[in-house]
Amino acid sequence: MSLWTRITDAIEALRTGEPLSAVFDRLRQRPERTVAFTIGVIALGAKLAKADGTVTKGEVAAFRAVFTIPPEDEPSAARVFNLARQDVAGFDAYARKIAGLFPPDDPVLRDLMEGLFHIALADGDFHPAEDAFLREVAGIFGLGEAYYRSMQARFVPGASPDPLDLLELPQDATLDQARAAFRRMVRETHPDQLRARGVPDEAVRLAEERLKALNSAWEEVQQRHAA
């Protein structure tokens, strides 16, 4: 059974008048957490796309950059998007539902945040409302300020990508600390690790850009210490 078939089944199981957020209470075990992850990205993405007051074609297209949606499954994806957009529950309610599926600061929650940043910056602009949205979601997910700075450095146009921010380290970190952080983050970014965490195959492609950023950060840190 395909991912999108399972998503369709999950939506069909909702009772009349029941909000999309109720689906997370039924998807706590693997492999169903993969379904929850995908619905979560789309649902929060739908809320995020409205955060700056407009939903652009670029933001909608960003879903296609994260998820490869076969033509026959496009109605299911569109239905998730519209159900989330129409739900009176705020984005924080969705974030808490998703956070309840995983431990605080779980790598899966980091993966989801990365997808949200990708959607927020799809129009080339980082609106203050999007910043506030993502900061609150990161807080609900138990992700620290160092992680948030790392995401800003990677995604926000004009941000100064300090390599230690990218490695989520303080400015006085040693070379050994940077090496350990780099190796840990590379391990977490390996496609096999992503799939083990329940990240859909379609979203694994984001790891390629993450690896490039990590490699560049580590090279710059080494150059600083060699100078």
How do the strands and helices of this protein lay out in sequence?
Blueprint: H1 3-12, H2 32-51, H3 57-66, H4 74-86, H5 91-99, H6 107-120, H7 128-140, H8 145-155, H9 163-166, H10 175-189, H11 191-196, H12 206-226
Structure commentary:
The mean pLDDT is 79. α2 packs across α4 (74-86), α2 (32-51) packs antiparallel against α5 (91-99) and α6 (107-120) packs antiparallel against α7. 38% of the residues are buried. The chain has helices at residues 3-12, 32-51, 57-66, 74-86, 91-99, 107-120, 128-140, 145-155, 163-166, 175-189, 191-196, 206-226. It has 227 residues and is mainly α.
Counting DSSP H or I runs of 4 or more residues, the number of helices is 12
Q: Given the helix and strand composition, which structural class is it?
A: mainly alpha
Q: Please write the string of helix (H) and strand (E) elements.
A: HHHHHHHHHHHH
Biggest sheet architecture:
none
Strand content: under 5%
The geometry reads as: globular
Helix content: 55-70%
Mean pLDDT: 79
Annotation, overall tally of beta strands = 0
Report the end-to-end length measured between terminal Cα atoms.
55 Å
Enumerate the spans where pLDDT stays under 50 for 5 or more consecutive residues: none
Rg estimate, integer Å: 18 Å
Please provide a brief summary of the model.
With 227 residues, this protein is mainly alpha-helical.
Which key terms come to mind for this protein?
227 residues, globular, 0% strand, mainly alpha, single chain
